C-alpha cells in the first residue's frame, strides 16, 4: 500500500518508518528542507533508540522516501497520515493552525479517493473542524477521515508502535475504518473503533490519568519524608494492586516532555470552554510544579543561597533515552539557579545540544565527572543508566562540597551515607 505521512517529527518519523518496515511504500513529507536533507543523507534529526537502524532498514528495502513537496508525497497515496504538532496557546488550549493548514493544502491533491488519518493530537471537535476545513477547500467529498491517536513513549517508541496496548480508530462510519484496522491487525488484537469525539478524549484522558498518577505518588512522597517512610516501598505495595498497577508510580521531580504537560493543559482549557471545571487536573499541574520547587528548597536548606555557588546537574532531558527537553524540570531549575547567581555545570548524554540553544552560557561537561568537578552540590534530574553505574568515590573526590539532591531516587540512601555524602532524595 502506498502511504504518505505529513510531518517527519517524532510521531510521523516513527510511524512512517515502522509502516515502511511492514512492507508499505511510505513517503514522508516535511516542510523543513534541512530535516528532509538530513534524512535523505542518512541522518536522524531526533534521538530515539533503534530509530536510525529502522530507517536504514526501510531505505535499504527502498520502502521509504523523504520530500518537502506535498504533491510528490500524495501522488498515488492511498492513505495519508497527518502528524504535525498542536502546541499550547497562551491559555493552554491546543493551537490547531498547523493541522488546519495541512487540511487546506492536501485538499488540492484529492484527485482520487484517499483515506486521511489524523494522528496529530487534537481536542474534542478537532477532527470535525479538520473535515470542515477540507470540505471548505473543495467541491467533492473525495475522502474518508479517521483519527488515530498515538501512544508512543519517547525512549521506547519503536517498541510501542510494534507492540501497542491498543489501537484507537475514530470514524464517522465503521466501514471506513476497515482499511486502517487491517494494517494494525498483525500487531494488535485490541482495536477500538469508535467516534471521532471518543477517540479524541481517549488520548487526552489517558495522558491526564498518567500525569495524575505521577502527581499523586509525589504527594504521598511528601508524607513519607515527614514520617520517615520509603516511597519506593509504598509504590511497590500499591502497585501490586491490579486495579492500580506499578506504572507511573515513580516519585521524583515531576513529569515533563511533549505530551503530558501539553495535553493536560489542553484538556483543562477544553473543560473551561465547555463549562466543566477540571479541578483535579488543575491540582495535578500545581503539584507537578511544586516538585521542582521542593528540590530547590532542599538544596537551599543545606546550602544557603549566595552568588557564586557552583552547582552540578546530571540530566537535562525530561526522561532518559531521549534528547527531548520540552517541559523538562531542568529548564525551570536552571532558570531559578541562574536568578540567584549560581554557576551551573551540567551533563546529559544526548540532550546538551538542545539545551545549549536555550542556555548557551552554562558550563557543559564532557562526561558526568567533568560536570561535578569543583561543585558544591549536585542535582540529579534524569535517571540515565550511566549515572547509576558511576564511581561514587571519584565523584566525591571531584566535588568541593558533598551535597547530592537526587530528584530521581537512583541511589540507595544508606549507601550514599556510607560514602560520606549529604544525600537527599524524594520520599525517602
- Counting structural domains, the number is 3
Treating each run of at least 4 consecutive H or I residues as one helix, how many helices? 17
Radius of gyration: 23 Å
CATH architecture of the largest domain: 3-Layer(aba) Sandwich
Low-confidence region ranges: none
Quick one: CATH class of the largest domain? Alpha Beta
Strand line-up of the largest beta sheet: 3-2-1-4-5-6
Measured as a percent range, the helix fraction is: 40-55%
Structural class: alpha/beta
> CATH topology of the largest domain, which one?
Rossmann fold
- State the end-to-end CA separation: 54 Å
Q: For the record, what is the CATH homologous superfamily label of the largest domain? A: NAD(P)-binding Rossmann-like Domain
Beta strand count: 14
Sheet with the most strands, sense and barrel status? 6 strands, parallel
Shape: globular
Kindly estimate the percentage of residues that lie in beta strands according to DSSP.
5-15%
Mean of residue pLDDT values: 96
Explain the layout of strands and helices.
Elements: E1 2-6, H1 10-21, E2 25-29, H2 33-40, H3 51-60, E3 64-67, H4 70-74, E4 79-82, H5 97-106, E5 114-118, H6 126-136, E6 143-147, H7 157-162, E7 167-170, H8 178-184, E8 191-194, H9 196-227, H10 231-239, H11 260-273, H12 279-302, E9 310-314, H13 329-339, E10 343-347, H14 352-358, E11 363-364, E12 377-380, H15 385-388, H16 392-398, E13 403-406, H17 413-418, E14 422-424
Parallel strand pairs: 1-2, 1-4, 2-3, 4-5, 5-6, 7-8, 9-10, 9-12, 10-11, 12-13, 13-14
Amino acid at each position: 500500500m502506498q502511504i504518505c505521512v505529513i510531518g517527519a517529527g517524532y510521531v510521523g518519523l516513527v510511524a512512517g518508518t515502522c509502516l515502511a518496515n511492514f512492507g508499505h511504500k511510505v513517503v514522508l513529507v516535511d516542510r523543513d528542507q534541512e530535516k528532509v536533507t538530513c534524512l535523505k543523507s542518512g541522518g536522524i534529526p531526533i534521538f530515539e533508540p533503534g530509530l536510525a537502524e529502522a530507517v536504514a532498514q526501510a531505505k535499504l528495502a527502498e520502502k521509504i522516501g523523504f520530500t518537502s513537496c506535498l504533491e510528490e508525497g500524495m501522488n498515488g497515496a492511498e492513505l495519508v497520515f497527518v502528524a504535525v504538532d498542536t502546541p499550547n496557546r497562551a491559555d493552554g488550549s491546543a493551537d490547531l493552525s498547523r493541522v488546519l493548514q495541512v487540511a487546506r493544502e492536501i485538499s488540492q491533491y484529492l484527485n482520487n479517493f484517499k483515506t486521511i488519518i489524523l494522528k496529530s493530537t487534537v481536542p474534542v471537535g478537532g477532527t470535525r473542524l479538520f473535515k470542515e476545513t477540507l470540505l471548505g477547500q473543495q467541491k467533492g467529498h473525495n475522502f474518508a477521515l479517521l483519527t488515530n491517536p498515538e501512544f508512543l513513549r519517547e525512549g521506547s517508541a519503536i517498541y510501542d508502535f510494534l507492540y501497542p496496548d491498543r489501537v484507537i480508530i475514530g470514524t464517522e462510519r465503521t466501514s471506513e475504518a476497515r482499511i486502517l484496522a487491517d494494517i494494525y491487525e498483525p500487531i494488535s488484537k485490541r482495536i477500538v473503533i469508535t467516534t471521532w469525539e471518543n477517540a479524541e478524549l481517549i488520548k487526552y484522558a489517558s495522558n491526564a490519568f498518567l500525569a495524575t498518577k505521577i502527581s499523586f505518588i509525589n504527594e504521598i512522597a511528601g508524607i513519607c519524608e515527614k514520617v520517615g517512610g520509603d516511597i519506593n516501598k509504598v509504590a511497590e505495595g500499591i502497585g501490586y494492586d491490579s486495579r492500580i498497577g506499578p506504572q507511573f508510580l515513580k516519585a521524583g521531580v515531576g513529569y515533563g516532555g511533549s505530551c503530558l504537560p501539553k495535553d493536560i493543559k489542553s484538556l483543562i482549557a477544553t473543560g473551561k470552554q465547555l463549562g466543566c471545571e477540571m479541578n483535579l487536573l488543575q491540582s495535578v499541574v500545581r503539584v507537578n510544579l511544586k516538585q521542582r520547587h521542593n528540590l530547590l528548597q532542599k538544596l537551599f536548606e543545606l546550602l544557603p543561597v549566595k552568588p557564586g555557588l557552583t552547582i552540578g546537574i546530571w540530566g537535562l532531558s525530561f526522561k532518559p533515552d531521549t534528547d527531548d527537553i520540552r517541559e523538562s524540570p531542568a529548564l525551570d531549575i536552571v532558570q531559578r539557579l541562574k536568578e540567584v547567581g549560581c554557576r551551573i555545570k551540567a551533563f546529559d548524554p544526548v540532550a546538551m545540544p538542545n539545551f545549549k540553544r536555550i542556555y548557551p552560557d552554562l558550563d557543559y561537561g564532557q562526561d558526568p565527572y567533568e560536570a561535578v568537578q569543583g561543585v558544591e552540590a549536585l542535582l540529579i534530574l534524569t535517571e540515565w543508566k550511566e549515572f547509576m553505574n558511576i564511581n561514587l568515590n571519584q565523584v566525591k573526590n571531584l566535588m568541593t562540597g558533598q551535597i547530592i539532591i537526587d530528584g530521581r531516587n537512583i541511589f540507595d540512601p544508606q549507601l550514599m551515607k556510607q560514602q560520606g555524602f549529604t544525600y537527599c532524595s524524594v520520599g525517602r
